[in-house]
Specification:
Layout (H helix, E strand, L loop, with lengths): L4 H5 L4 E4 L5 E4 L1 H7 L3 H4 L4 H5 L15 H7 L7 E6 L5 E12 L6 E9 L2 H14 L24 H11 L4 H8 L3 H15 L4 H10 L4
Antiparallel strand pairs: 1-2, 1-5, 3-4, 4-5
């Protein structure tokens, strides 16, 4: 049995794309959630259908798909959230989980996307409150103009800031490791520390939040 056949029968909203980003499966639950009939999306580019933006409104889905690039580099794709566009034009905040299914050839693969609605406004608000709650107390010493310098909203080490800047430049895990003369394993550990401290689930979310908090 083709493992992708399971997607058709599952009750969870799901769709699959091939190694070129084209939709190859769009199940009934996805039809009901997003409004697009399967017949109207099969064979089309995923980014033209989903039109996803991240939690801060930055464009996520395009021809240079970050998820696909991570799969090609054999990097794990963490859970993430996007605001997607329904067939009616209405926006929907959705939580995504990704599963890679190998094809018959090394260059072939499918990416299965499982998604479910989320209350993004509530979750983003909670995230910001957690970050502010964990921030260090304001510095007592006064600057030359008499004002207290603002405390950083998130405390990252110098190495973690290097990692974050390189992620913002679009560097892969291997690129970062080579640039900093450290192992890929060490690089991944640093990336995970950055994600944990920023309380996000993906590199793209980390960069978006860092820009919003003026860490970059």
């Amino acid at each position: 049995m083709d493992p992708l056949d399971v997607i058709v029968r599952t009750g969870a909203a799901a769709f699959a794309t091939d190694e070129h980003g084209r939709v190859v499966i769009w199940n009934k639950a996805a039809e009901e959630l997003l409004g697009h009939p399967a017949a109207s999306v099969l064979g089309k580019s995923c980014h033209d259908i989903v039109c996803g933006v991240d939690v801060f409104g930055n464009r996520f889905c395009d021809r240079q798909c970050g998820v696909m690039n991570m799969v090609r580099r054999q990097e794990p794709v963490q859970h993430f959230e996007l605001e997607v566009r329904k067939e009616s034009g209405e926006k929907l905040a959705a939580s995504f989980s990704i599963v890679q299914v190998p094809g018959h050839k090394p260059s072939q693969f499918s990416i299965v996307h499982f998604l479910q609605p989320v209350d993004r406004a509530r979750d983003v608000s909670a995230l910001i409150h957690r970050i502010l709650a964990d921030s260090p107390a304001p510095v007592v010493a006064h600057a030359a103009n008499g004002a207290a310098p603002p405390a950083p909203p998130v405390q990252l080490t110098a190495r973690e800031m290097q990692i974050l800047r390189l992620l913002a430049d679009g560097a892969s895990t291997r690129d970062i490791a080579d640039s900093l003369f450290i192992s890929v394993t060490t690089t991944r550990n640093h990336v995970q520390n950055v994600l944990r401290k920023l309380d996000v689930h993906s590199k793209l979310e980390a960069v978006s939040l860092a820009l919003r908090l003026h860490l970059l």
